[in-house]
Design a protein that fits this description.
heterodimer; A: 179 residues; alpha/beta; five-stranded mixed beta sheet; globular; B: alpha/beta; eight-stranded parallel beta sheet; three-stranded antiparallel beta sheet
Chain lengths: 179, 308
C-alpha cells in the first residue's frame, strides 16, 4: 500500500515494523496521513506491529526532535523506544490472555504501552527484570496493537485473531450497506 | 543476571534472550525498503532523520574524503558517535576495520545498533574477519559475489550489502556486485543437490548456506546496495535489480543540496517502480557529487578488493 487510492480495495490494513519516523514522513509526503486517519476513524480493521503500534497510538513519547506525525485512534500512550538500543532487543515467551500456550515474541528496539484508556483491552504484559510491567499487546474494538513482531516469530495465532477482526469488519460493512 | 548461551544471552529473572540471531537479523528486516545515510556530524544526522532515513552510519570522514586524504582509516572517535547517537532516535550504525574485533567491542559498548565491518576503513587483518557470533550487536558486511556473502553470513553477519566502490559516486561497481550475487542465487536455485556440493567448494562457501539460499531463492539475510549510489535513479536502479534497500555514503553530503537530495533518494527507494514519481523527485537537486570514473583508479586504489 503506497498510495491513498489503493485503500479502497482493502478489507483490513497491517502497518508493519520499520522506522516509525520514516513511515510517518513518507506517509505525509504522499498525502496518506488523512486517508489513513479516516480509515481508522471509520472503524475499519487495522493492526500495527512495533512501529505500526506507535503510529496508531494517540500519544507517543521519545519521538525525534521535531515530533512525528501519528495516525492515532488507539487510546494509549506509547514509549517509542522503551526497551533501548539494539543490544537490548530480545526474544521471550509471552503469556497471552485466554491462550493455552505462551506466544514466542521478538522485540526489536521495541516500544511499550505505558498507559491505556478505559476502552482498551490488554492482551499481554511483559515484566522487566526490575519487576515493572508494561503492556505489549492491546486491542480496542477494530484496532490491534503489538509491540513485538509476529511476522518474525511465525506465531500465526496473532494473524488468525486479526483475520477474525477483518471478517467481523467485513460483515459490519455489508450490514451497513444493506437495507 | 545474564548468562551466555550458544546463541545469545538469557536473563534469569524474566527469560528474555538477547543477542540471538533472530533478533540480529530481525532489525535488518525492519530496515528493508529504506535508506541508510553516512553522516559525520549530529546536524547531518538530523537532516538524514528528517529526510526519512531508516538509519544513519556515524563516521569521522565520508569515503570520498578518506579516498582523497589517504592514510590509515580507523573506527571513528567515540565522542563523534555518541553525539550522533544523542541527536537522533533512528538506529545508528558505525564502522569497524575488517578483522578488528576490539574496535567492534568498543562500538558494542557504546550501544551502537549495527556494526559495519567495512572495507572503506583500512583492514586490520589480511586473513580473518571478525567472529561475529561472539557479539550481541549485529553486523553488516560487504560482498562482491555469492561466495563472499555466504562466508560473511557463516561468520555471523546478520545483513549483507554490495561493496560497490565507495566514495566514487559511480554506481557501476555496485551494479556489478548486485548482478553477480543475484545471478548466482538464480543459478543455484536450478542446480541439483549434487551440483551444489561442487559449487559450494568452488565459491568457498558452506554447502548448508548454499542449500538454504537455493531453497529460499534469495540470501538468507537482508541484502542492501552500497558503494557509489549518488542519485534517486541510482537508488531505484539498485531496488529494481532486486536489493532490499540502499546505503548512501558520500553521495548526499558531498552534493550541492544535501537535504533535498536525501529526501529525494528516500522517496525514490519507496517508489522505485514508479517512473513518474522518480521523475518528480529527481528534479532540481543541484549539483551531484563530482564522481570518479573507475578506469582512472588503479587496482590498489579500489577498496572493494579488501576482504577475503
Amino acid at each position: 500500500m503506497r498510495r491513498a487510492d489503493q485503500l479502497g480495495k482493502l478489507d483490513g490494513l497491517i502497518i508493519p515494523g520499520g522506522e516509525s519516523t520514516t513511515m510517518g514522513l513518507v506517509a505525509e509526503r504522499w498525502g496518506l496521513v488523512n486517508p489513513l486517519r479516516r480509515w481508522v476513524s471509520q472503524g475499519r480493521p487495522v493492526w500495527g506491529t512495533c512501529a505500526g503500534l506507535i503510529l496508531l497510538a494517540d500519544r507517543a513519547t521519545g519521538q525525534k526532535r521535531d515530533g512525528q506525525p501519528l495516525l492515532g485512534g488507539l487510546n494509549v500512550s506509547v514509549d517509542r523506544n522503551f526497551f533501548g538500543s539494539q543490544r537490548d532487543s530480545f526474544e521471550a515467551e509471552l503469556e497471552v490472555a485466554g491462550w493455552d500456550a505462551p506466544s514466542p515474541a521478538v522485540f526489536i528496539r521495541a516500544p511499550a504501552v505505558i498507559e491505556t484508556g478505559p476502552d482498551v483491552e490488554v492482551l499481554a504484559e511483559w515484566t522487566d527484570p526490575d519487576g515493572n510491567a508494561v503492556q505489549v499487546a492491546v486491542r480496542q474494538s477494530h484496532i490491534l496493537g503489538t509491540a513485538f513482531h509476529p511476522e518474525l516469530s511465525g506465531d500465526l495465532r496473532w494473524h488468525r485473531l486479526f483475520l477474525n477482526m477483518v471478517e467481523a469488519g467485513a460483515a459490519t460493512q455489508v450490514n451497513r450497506s444493506g437495507p | 543476571m545474564e548468562t551466555m548461551e550458544k546463541n545469545g544471552y538469557i536473563n534469569s529473572s524474566n527469560g528474555a534472550r538477547t543477542g540471538t540471531y533472530t533478533v540480529k537479523a530481525g532489525l535488518a528486516q525492519m530496515l528493508k525498503g529504506g535508506v541508510i545515510m553516512d553522516v559525520v556530524t549530529p546536524e547531518q544526522a538530523r537532516i538524514a532523520e528528517e529526510a526519512g532515513a531508516c538509519a544513519v552510519m556515524a563516521l569521522e570522514r565520508v569515503p570520498a574524503d578518506i579516498r582523497k586524504e589517504g592514510g590509515v582509516s580507523r573506527m571513528s572517535d567515540p565522542q563523534v558517535i555518541r553525539a550522533i547517537k544523542e541527536a537522533v532516535t533512528i538506529p545508528v550504525m558505525a564502522k569497524a576495520r575488517i578483522g578488528h574485533f576490539v574496535e567492534a567491542q568498543i562500538l558494542e559498548a557504546l550501544g551502537i545498533d549495527y556494526i559495519d565491518e567495512s572495507e572503506v576503513l583500512t583492514p586490520a587483518d589480511e586473513n580473518n574477519h571478525i567472529d561475529k557470533h561472539n557479539f550481541t550487536v549485529p553486523f553488516v558486511c560487504g560482498c562482491r559475489n555469492l561466495g563472499e556473502a555466504l562466508r560473511r553470513i557463516a561468520e555471523g553477519a546478520a545483513m549483507i550489502r554490495t561493496k560497490g566502490e565507495a566514495g566514487t559516486g559511480n554506481v557501476v561497481e555496485a551494479v556489478r556486485h548486485a548482478r553477480s550475487v543475484l545471478g548466482e542465487v538464480r543459478r543455484i536455485s536450478t542446480m541439483s543437490a549434487d551440483e551444489r556440493y561442487a559449487y559450494a567448494r568452488d565459491i568457498q562457501a558452506p554447502v548448508e548456506l548454499v542449500n538454504e539460499t537455493a531453497t529460499l531463492g534469495r540470501l538468507p539475510v537482508v541484502n542492501f546496495a552500497a558503494g557509489g549510489v549518488a542519485t534517486p535513479a541510482d537508488a531505484a536502479l539498485m531496488m529494481q535489480l532486486g536489493l532490499d534497500g540502499v546505503f548512501v555514503g558520500s553521495g548526499i553530503f558531498k552534493s550541492g543540496a544535501p537535504a533535498k537530495r536525501a529526501h529525494a533518494i528516500v522517496q525514490a527507494v519507496t517508489h522505485f517502480n514508479d517512473a513518474e514519481v522518480l521523475a518528480e523527485v529527481s528534479e532540481d537537486l543541484g549539483e551531484p557529487m563530482v564522481g570518479i570514473n573507475l578506469d582512472t583508479l588503479s587496482e590498489p586504489e579500489k577498496m572493494a578488493h579488501r576482504g577475503w
